[in-house]
Design brief:
273 residues; alpha+beta; Deoxyribonuclease I, Chain A; 6-stranded mixed β-sheet; 5-stranded mixed β-sheet; GPI-anchor_lipid_remodeler; hydrolase; Endo/exonu/phosph_ase_sf; hydrolase activity
Length: 273
């Protein structure tokens, strides 16, 4: 794993090859847990503002530089704990991205605006928000389509349930939402291993590829479980995948570089500002 300050980890993608740099990160609303006991001793930072969270958010912003499309989970869209500032807007502004979008899945008023975030150097031509089925409410999928309607890339940002039954229903719902898309990326905290994803019948039927080499992301200070994933359609060739050694949350960020079909690459570049 590379340091976030390592140019090899966060380089600007080469434009003479049709590659896309993806990043998926459960950012834990910037809390930055570094050991198990902090879930208790620092738990107040999930409901009250702190300088530590503000400083950590700046470090997360530095991490985003050099990527093309970023999916973030456990974000706050503007409540007391984030000093009523949309964290995704702040990160996009800091890292120099013009496009960002938020999906709030748990609206707790002033206490928390909990959800998903998308940051991109491309502007999508269509974006949709979806509630996912499950035993408990609060899970969703944010879908952005980039390029053109005739040659598009569908990017799904999601955070799946802890329970296996709810997770299976959520994966089936996501697969149905992108069933007609040729080029697909699904990124997020799936709360399960690659082995569990490979065994999921809806995902297997969809043809989406699960990167099956071990990429432990949780817990960030001693990663043992790979529960954050970037799934891709067969049309996107994976050229690189790794967890980035940056303890900015209780999860490690996950990076993937994919090679694009030429026509899709041209469509995406034509949509960039």
């Amino acid at each position: 794993m590379n340091s976030p300050n390592d140019p090899g980890a966060l380089r600007q993608p080469s434009r003479d090859k049709p590659r896309l740099s993806l990043l998926s990160f459960n950012m834990q609303v910037g809390v930055g847990t570094k050991r198990y006991r902090e879930y208790v001793t620092q738990g107040w930072r999930h409901v009250l503002p702190s300088q530590q969270v503000r400083d950590n958010l700046d470090r997360i912003g530095e991490l985003l530089v050099g990527h093309d499309i970023i999916g973030l989970q456990e974000i706050d869209a503007g409540s007391r704990r984030s000093q009523y500032r949309n964290q995704i807007e702040h990160l996009a502004e800091q890292a120099g991205f013009e496009y960002w979008r938020v999906q709030v899945n748990r609206n707790l008023g002033r206490v928390a605006q909990h959800g998903l975030g998308l940051i991109s150097r491309f502007t999508p031509f269509a974006v949709s928000e979806h509630k996912l089925p499950g035993r408990l409410p609060g899970r969703g999928a944010l879908i952005a389509r980039f390029g053109t309607p005739d040659d598009s890339l569908a990017v799904v940002v999601t955070h799946l349930a802890l329970g296996a039954g709810s997770r299976a229903r959520q994966l089936a719902a996501i697969c149905e939402l992108v069933a007609r898309d040729e080029h697909v990326v699904v990124m997020g905290d799936t709360n399960c291993t690659a082995h569990a994803l490979i065994a999921d019948p809806a995902l297997a039927a969809s043809g989406l590829h699960v990167y099956d080499r071990p990429l432990p992301t949780f817990p960030s200070w001693r990663p043992r479980r790979g529960i954050d994933h970037i799934l891709t359609s067969p049309s996107l060739k994976i050229r690189e995948a790794r967890a980035i050694d940056a303890v900015l949350s209780d999860h490690l960020p996950l990076h993937m570089a994919v090679e694009l079909p030429d026509t899709l690459h041209r469509a995406l570049e034509g949509a960039s500002p």
